[in-house]
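Summary for the steering committee. One of the milestones for this cycle was to obtain a three-dimensional model of the protein with uridine-5'-diphosphate bound, which we needed before selecting residues for the alanine scan. The sequence and ligand used are listed below.
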Amino acid sequence: MNILVTGGMGFIGSHTVVELLENNDEVIIIDNLINSKIDVLDKIEKITGKKPAFYQINLCDKDLVEKVFSNHQIDVVIHFAGLKAVGESVEKPLLYYQNNLISTLNLLEVMKNHNCKKLVFSSSATVYGSPKFLPIKEDFPLSTTNPYGSTKLFIEHMLKDLYTSDPEWSIAILRYFNPIGAHPSYLIGENPNGIPNNLMPYIVKVAIKQLDHLNIFGNDYQTKDGTGVRDYIHVVDLAKGHLKAVQKVMTTNKIDCYNLGTGNGYSVLEMVETFEQVNNIEVPYQIVARRSGDIAQCYADPTYAKQELGFECEKTLEDMVKDSYQYIINNK
Ligand code: NAD
Ligand code: UDP
């Protein structure tokens, strides 16, 4: 199959491209490298022995997207591209609406023009807002607390309206929980510039002494030890989930949403302890005030994804913390 992967140079996208190439799919990547680096392409080739077609273009430029579809007969699109920093989205909401919504609208219009109506979309557990019950099921009410989350929710609405207007579309909306870890080659992974926003990249930078200590945002939540609980999923498991979703959209004509998580919730303190034990390194921390907008607990009910996609996670929490650390050690 010819699979267009937007945002294929990014963290989750690059791992998915590796899995697709290893599955013998033809991959075409569109990425403007706003949050990724060109050397990822060589690393993908080192891992798989194959080099995907790559277009360094902004999806907000519709004419350029159109050209890619003219150059390739695309069977299905996996749409990762987007800006994803919650804090930045609060400061620069227009940038987020502009980038995430215009790029998706352009993509959908061009897909429609070329009669390519199969799509896998990267959504997020953030669309569940602050869930009333746990674990989170796909039919829970949706809401958001920041512009980034709103872009995901708006796109979900757009996709549902599109499907209603034309049921020839087939769309899988994947709601990711908290992806961490890295490819076991340690050639690709997550290494954000500057001070990380997310827990695991921050822990790793403390471990390699680029940062002094971890700030734990609150220990007075209604959780097992007072710190926030999340569902961490290994990025390689997550990447494999996309192959299952591609199979689904190729064999059905429907729109559906799937949680991609493990179903296990771990607290911040449990993450720190596991990281220290597995990697045999200390992570100094301080408890500080809650981070605004944070929720106490968020973890998936993975039953529907298992039933509908045959998706199940294989990697353990130990694999996740080991691979996150090893990737940085190998790419400092
Ligand atoms: P990432 O930033 O590493 O990758 C996104 C890629 O998209 C980057 O390479 C970036 O350069 C590219 N991009 C952004 N805007 C573009 C545009 N207008 N045109 C072309 N390329 C563009 O992010 P990621 O962690 O790999 O996330 C992938 C997707 O999954 C995103 O849509 C994100 O919102 C979603 N998601 C991520 C997480 C997470 O914690 N990492 C959780 C839930 C959902
Ligand atoms: N967290 C923390 N210190 C940090 C970053 C995150 O204590 O420097 C906590 C955060 O409050 C949450 C958990 O770690 O309980 C996961 O946060 P992350 O930003 O990685 O994911 P999200 O909150 O988006 O699920």
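Key point for the committee: The longest strand covers residues 118-124.
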